[in-house]
Write a structure and sequence with these properties.
This protein has 167 residues and is mainly alpha-helical. It has seven helices and three strands, in the order αβββαααααα. It has a three-stranded mixed sheet, covered by helices on one side.
């Protein structure tokens, strides 16, 4: 399914310590595995990140957008689903939108990427938004999604990440 291009930012291009530190604020542990191995817990397969409970699995060729997306699934799901999470995060359309919004916000907490880069990588991969791009959606059509994140205390009214997990 993946259509990541050579321009997509990969784990190998990142500051892995910084990324690990960011994810640890949510209790997520990143496990980098050898390039030749299949990624445990990967829903999409290939180089896409995998998630088993709070353990995120990635290879050097895993896109940063995939790592943040799967991490945000962990953040946005309720405790019951988190405790049994293995591969398929599931969830509602509202939750999926919240995951996308939160991954864009989190990208600005990393020195090696940005919201702009995240949205371009999301579009290159094939994320689909009714306004045609993640940027158009994020800037013009995601107010209900932001409200969902505020309601669940995952961002505050200023749209800053709270580093809470959904309860």
């Amino acid at each position: 399914m993946t259509i990541a291009s050579a321009k997509t930012q990969l784990l190998i291009d990142s500051n892995q310590d910084e990324l690990g530190s960011l994810l640890s604020r949510f209790g997520i542990v990143i496990n980098v595995i050898s390039p030749e191995l299949e990624i445990p817990g990967s829903f999409w397969g290939d180089e896409e990140a995998g998630l088993i409970r709070n353990q995120l699995y990635a290879r050097p060729d895993t896109p940063i957008h995939s790592i943040l997306h799967e991490s945000c699934h962990y953040v946005c799901m309720d405790e019951c689903r988190r405790s049994s999470l293995h591969t398929n995060a599931g969830g509602s359309a509202d939750e999926e939108n919240a995951v996308c919004y939160l991954q864009i916000l989190l990208s600005d907490h990393l020195s090696f990427t940005s919201k702009t880069k995240m949205m371009k990588d999301m579009d290159n991969w094939g994320y689909s938004f009714r306004l045609g791009s993640s940027k158009a959606w994020f800037e013009s059509d995601a107010s209900e999604t932001a409200d969902w994140l505020i309601e669940h205390k995952l961002i505050n009214r200023a749209h800053a990440v709270t580093f809470n997990l959904r309860h």
